[in-house]
Each structure stands twice: as structure tokens, then as C-alpha cells.
UniProtKB/TrEMBL annotation:
Gene Ontology terms, MF aspect: kynureninase activity; pyridoxal phosphate binding
Identification of the protein by name: Kynureninase
Annotated catalysed reactions: 3-hydroxy-L-kynurenine + H2O = 3-hydroxyanthranilate + L-alanine + H(+); L-kynurenine + H2O = anthranilate + L-alanine + H(+)
Gene3D superfamilies found in the cross-reference section: Aspartate Aminotransferase, domain 1, Type I PLP-dependent aspartate aminotransferase-like (Major domain)
Domain of life: Bacteria
Function: Catalyzes the cleavage of L-kynurenine (L-Kyn) and L-3-hydroxykynurenine (L-3OHKyn) into anthranilic acid (AA) and 3-hydroxyanthranilic acid (3-OHAA), respectively.
Species of origin: Allosphingosinicella humi
């Protein structure tokens, strides 16, 4: 039996405890949705004020040079690099994950036009599959096939152009072995494109060590970059000069202010910029990334696994018989930083929890998902969340009709 005293002792011994102060979170709220929209870093509030009033309001267009707005995509990319085990010049911030997927899928297809197969898995995040299917309509011969994850390695072959996978599954939290899968793909001559949206800032990543060549990732989840924050993309150094963007914008040109008609790609990763970067969002993302300052990802991951274990144990201990079926792997090496349960009334339970100030989220058709963010969650938050969950399940309050009403965003 886990007791509240034990949980408080975990908080007292938590090396990341002070990090919570970096975030402005409402009193009494248990926020378990940092895997969807990260919390607001306190530093972002002051920084945004400064950017709006001084850099935009006073210095106006001069800020592109004087405040180095123009260098921000590379600068913020370089700050993300240590979180993913990449070199600073291998990461750049731009656009959304969806757009960056398009850029890298089409560039990879052009690199090996004789290899027509774009391989992914069914149930991958839908934007990944949608962008991939759109690319197949544009690129001659390129075709998309999805195979179950257990069969991916055998499906790789001499016709595989690109393997497109999400490292940590958005729904179940299942995690691929990046080194192994990338190596298998390489053995068959294919590139792998990893979507790190549910990994970056959550699980320790070593892209260089694991041989990863292409990746994209989300800025608004664990990186705390704010709603709709721009995403990042990673291209391994050795590939950068070989990939030619199909989405060619002036910001990815070698000399954007030469205004020439012909396209000359910028050297290195900068060629994957397209249009003008959204400075307010990009600088908010910079504050989000800086909220990891001094945080060792192995320490953060150790806390994430402990939060997960506590959550799972408390559900087992206190919610037995209420039909919650954990769909996330128990092995820490095989999962990300969220815990998900299947339940026929997952939506209603999630809504009742939100009313009780425990914010998780629902993923159709029947999963309720809880993000475990080691920077701003304590162990007692988990205890409180489960307390409120038990109350909702035992009282049957989730059955009240208002909890069945669905908004546009679920
Ligand atoms: C795995 C994954 N990829 C991509 C996205 C969407 O990214 P964007 O909105 O930046 O296109 C999400 C959003 O939740 C996601 O979970």
C-alpha cells in the first residue's frame, strides 16, 4: 500500500523539485497534459513583453539585425540540439511538424528516385500519414505502405526509400528502439525519418549516437514553447549538402537579400527554412527550451519513470474494478513519458477530471492520456489526481450528461 507520507518523501528527495518554480501554473490544478501543450514558463512572460514592447514596438525592423531575429531559427535549433543528442548545426526551428515532414519526405524521395517505397505504420499520428500520402501524389512513383510495427523490419527492402515513424506513439506511449530500427533501415539502404514530437524534452535522445539521419519534432509539447509554437527539424551533417528542398523559400536561399530569380540552397540545414520565421512564437519557444537549463535529461527521465510507476501503482491500488486498462508499456525502455488507459467512457471520465482540475486528454475512440512532465509535476500531484479520479469513478459522476458534450478540440 502506497501512502501519502511515502509520496511526500519522494517529493522531498526530488532533485528537480525547484524546476516547478520556472512555470506559472494555476494553484490547485494538476496539469497532466504537458505532452499536448506544455505549461507557461515564467521567463516567457517577461521575454514576450520585452520582444513586443522593445524589439517590435521600439526597434521595429532594425531588430532583424540588432536583436538577431534573423539568426533565431538556428540559435534556438542549437539550443534544442543537446536535448536530442545532435550537433548544434544539425537542428533548425521552422514551420510546423506537418510542414517539416513534407520537406524531408520530398527531399528524401528526390535523393533516391529509384526507390519508390515510403514505409510507415498504421495508427501513426495522422498528420504524418496525411502528409506522406500527399507527397505520393506529387512525387512520381512514390507509394506509401503501412505495416504493423512488428513487421516493419521484414518489410524493409531494396525498394524502400524512407521509413517514417513516430518514436514515441502519441496514444499508447510505445517507443521504438531508435538505434536498432535506424540500423535495419540503413542495412536495406533506406533513410529513416523520426517524428520526435512525444519524445523531445521527455525521453533522453541520442540521435547522433543512434545513427539517426532525419527527424522532426514539436515545440509546443514538452518543450513548453506555447500554443502553435514552431517545430524543429534535424538533418545529420553528412546528408545536409545532399538534400535539395522541394519547398524552396527565400529564407532557405544562400543569399535571400540578393533577390535573384534562380534558387541556390543555403549551405547546411538553413536550406530547410521556407518563409519568414514567426518571431513572437519562435522567441516564446526559446524561453520554453531554456526552461531545461541545467536539467540533465537522464535525471528528468528517471523522474518520469518514477511518476509513471507511481501513477500505475495507484490506479491498480485504488481504481480496480472500474475498467481502466493500461495500454502503455510497463518497461521504461519501451515507452515515453505519458500513461494511457483504455475505457469505454474515456471521454466522459476525462471531462469529469478536467472539471475537478485534473487536466489530461482524450484520444479517440477510447483512450484517456496523462502526460508526466518531470519539470513541473511532483509526486503529490499524482496522488491528488488519483484521489480525484477515484472520487469520479466511485460516485459515477462522469455519467452526468454534460460530460458527454464534445467541443471541436477533444
Ligand atoms: C506525433 C505527432 N506528430 C505531429 C503532430 C502535429 O504537429 P504540427 O501541429 O506541428 O503539425 C503531433 C501533434 O500532436 C504529434 O503528436
Amino acid at each position: 500500500m502506497i501512502t501519502l507520507e511515502q509520496v511526500r518523501a519522494l517529493d522531498a528527495a526530488d532533485p528537480l523539485r525547484a524546476c516547478r518554480e520556472r512555470f506559472a501554473l494555476p494553484e490547485g490544478l494538476v496539469y497532466l497534459d504537458g505532452n499536448s501543450l506544455g505549461a507557461l514558463p515564467r521567463a516567457a512572460v517577461e521575454r514576450q513583453r520585452q520582444v513586443v514592447e522593445r524589439e517590435w514596438g521600439r526597434d521595429l525592423i532594425r531588430s532583424w539585425n540588432s536583436h538577431d531575429w534573423i539568426g533565431a531559427p538556428q540559435r534556438v535549433g542549437a539550443k534544442i540540439a543537446p536535448l536530442i543528442g545532435a550537433k548544434p548545426h544539425e537542428v533548425i526551428v521552422a514551420d510546423s511538424v506537418s510542414v517539416n515532414l513534407f520537406k524531408l519526405i520530398t527531399a528524401a524521395a528526390a535523393l533516391s528516385p529509384k526507390r519508390p517505397l515510403l514505409l510507415s505504420e498504421p495508427g501513426n499520428f495522422h498528420t504524418d500519414l496525411h502528409v506522406a500520402s500527399g507527397a505520393t501524389e506529387l512525387v512520381p512513383n512514390l507509394r506509401l505502405e503501412t505495416v504493423e510495427r512488428g513487421r516493419i523490419e521484414e518489410a524493409l527492402g531494396p525498394d524502400t526509400n524512407l521509413l517514417l515513424l513516430t518514436h514515441v506513439h502519441y496514444k499508447t506511449g510505445e517507443r521504438f528502439d531508435m538505434a536498432r530500427v535506424t540500423a535495419r533501415a540503413k542495412d536495406s539502404g533506406a533513410l529513416t525519418l523520426w517524428d520526435l514530437s512525444h519524445s523531445v524534452g521527455a525521453v533522453p535522445l541520442q540521435l547522433n549516437r543512434d545513427g539517426a539521419e532525419l527527424a522532426v519534432g514539436c515545440g509546443y509539447k514538452y518543450l513548453n514553447g506555447g500554443p502553435g509554437a514552431p517545430a524543429f527539424l534535424y538533418v545529420a551533417e553528412h546528408l545536409q549538402e545532399r538534400l535539395m528542398p522541394v519547398l524552396r523559400g527565400w529564407m532557405g536561399h544562400a543569399a535571400p537579400f540578393a533577390f535573384t530569380d534562380e534558387y541556390v540552397p543555403a549551405p547546411g540545414i538553413a536550406r530547410f527554412l521556407a518563409g519568414t520565421p514567426p518571431m513572437l512564437s519562435l522567441l516564446a519557444l526559446e524561453s520554453g527550451v531554456e526552461s531545461f537549463e541545467g536539467v540533465d535529461m537522464e535525471t528528468a527521465w528517471a523522474k518520469s519513470t518514477a511518476l509513471f510507476d507511481l501513477f500505475a501503482a495507484l490506479v491498480e491500488q485504488r481504481c480496480a474494478g472500474h475498467g481502466l486498462d493500461c495500454v502503455s508499456p510497463r518497461d521504461p525502455g519501451a515507452r515515453g513519458s505519458h500513461i494511457s488507459y483504455r475505457h469505454p467512457h474515456a471521454f466522459e471520465i476525462c471531462q469529469a477530471l478536467i472539471e475537478a482540475e485534473v487536466i489530461g486528454d482524450f484520444r479517440a475512440p477510447d483512450v484517456v492520456r496523462f502526460g508526466l512532465t518531470p519539470l513541473y509535476l511532483g509526486y503529490e500531484d499524482i496522488w491528488t489526481a488519483i484521489d480525484r479520479l477515484v472520487d469520479i469513478l466511485e460516485s459515477g459522476r462522469w455519467r452526468e450528461p454534460r460530460f458527454a458534450v464534445r467541443g471541436k478540440v477533444t
